[in-house]
Amino acid sequence: MRDFAAFGIMIFSLSFTLNVYLWFHLSYLWHIHHTILFWGLLLLSTVSWFGAMALDMRFSNRATGTLNAASLVWMGFEIYMMFALILYDIVRLTRGADPRVAAIVLPFVAVVLVVLSIVITQFIRVRRIELRSDKLARDLRIVQLSDLHIGSIHGPRRLARIVRMANAQEPDVVLITGDLVDGPGRFRDHMYSVLDDIKAPVLFTTGNHEYYAGLEGVLAVLATTKLRVLRNELAEMDGYQVIGLDDGRRGTVPDILPQIPHDRSKYTVLMFHQPTGLEAAAEGGVDLQLSGHTHGGQFIPFPLLARAIWHRYTGLYELKGTYLYCTTGGGTWGPPFRLGTMCEIAVLDIRGRAKDAPAGKDAPAA
Predict the structure, then answer these.
(1) Which CATH number fits domain 124-351: 3.60.21.10, 3.10.120.10, 3.30.930.10, 3.40.1280.10?
(2) Closest by alpha carbon to 180, among 155, 143, 198?
(3) pLDDT in tens, 205-255
């Protein structure tokens, strides 16, 4: 919970800055005076998500969940408005712009983007990747799920849909690479019981949101399902092995991987929530690393930020014969938006010695 508090302080600071910028610009465009009502609305807008989240953590019912969702949609609208206003300021300062037109056009564009982003979030694509390994005597099909963020926004119904999609791929194993839960508050046994419907072994390793939600409580809930949780340990499977490492703030791939004995002659899959440590994975004899965390940036313009922060922020990468696939994930965090990215489940077909397949489709040099 200490991590969640620190994260909350950071988000509150960003929210306050965003709202000051937004409301002062709107007061100029819409000729709003800086009265007590103005400052009250600015403060309410700043704390709306925190208040809604606190209520949802305390009561966790449909009403508080709806309020939380509404506050996140409002946050998303503010983000779109902020970037629209930044563009307006650039145009105004360089070429000139009519504030009367901007007062109408900018909110309209933001609303359109909000609606479009919510609609796109409802679609979940199946992303297919094909690799080859002589270490496997037969083909191996992995379904990777990540960043589902099951909670107030994405509930049991969405999880059931993803389970059906995973089963339709007829996988040999399902690997969940963190952030299955969303955050503190709304996670209950019944929300995850549908995981028992997966028709394959299911392995899970933690992400940062399992810690935000309270790791002990999360693990207690997941213990009621068929999930096998890997916490810095190895699972021997049928002709291959899977290593699961805890979320990266509890150690990194170079720190932990050397401490886990594994047979380098076997095909080795590494589950690690953050898309880092490929160099250490390659040195450690890992054949495939599966990660998530970045959401691919989730919605415009944040893919540009994700690309700047994470060297390998989405897609397939290769280094010295070791592959890393970073999925965009099956859910959302914060505003339930996707724009410029899509929710996905990843299907990785690793062709064994009996098949002749390319060594990795569309894998850029890492």
Answers:
(1) 3.60.21.10
(2) 155
(3) 999 999 988 899 999 999 999 999 999 999 999 999 999 999 966 679 999
